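REQUEST FORM: STRUCTURE PREDICTION
Request ID: SP-0412
Submitted by: Lab K.M.
Chain count: 1
Length (residues): 161
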Amino acid sequence: MAAINDQQKALFAPTIALLCWTFVMEAWMYATRIPAFSKYNVKLSGQALKADWDRQLPASVRWKADNYNHLHEQPTLFYVVIFLLAFLSQSGGATSKLGLSDGAGGVTSLDVGLAWLYVGLRFTHSLIQALANPILVRFSVFVSSSFVLLGLTLRAAALVF
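STATUS: Completed
RESULT:
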């Protein structure tokens, strides 16, 4: 495999930022949820369903956990697309073996900008959900991030087809 170039490193930066953000949300979830279990006398049982615990906790506590779970849903597609873009943009190596032209293009500033925009929208989505959770505002940010992810996906598709 060819060495990672500066453009690819630039593309991985927002990916690492989103991974770090996921850990921030995990810490925030624990910092909120663990004390709430005691405060609200939540009965912890292996037989209890998530819905049983949710009924015992205020919504503001649940929002952090819900967002942490959301960071393991659509962003997984983001991670795949970023790695595809980095992989497909390499000159030589595996892309040549796949029959892709070395002239198919490399990582562009548009790719990097879209990746950062996606991450910024996911940060925003997290803060909206964790702090106040206005559904329509959160939904508009989610849809915006979906369109950005679609753009990145189309960029990767253009390198293949």
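NOTES: DSSP finds seven helices and no strands in the chain.
Reviewed by: T.R.
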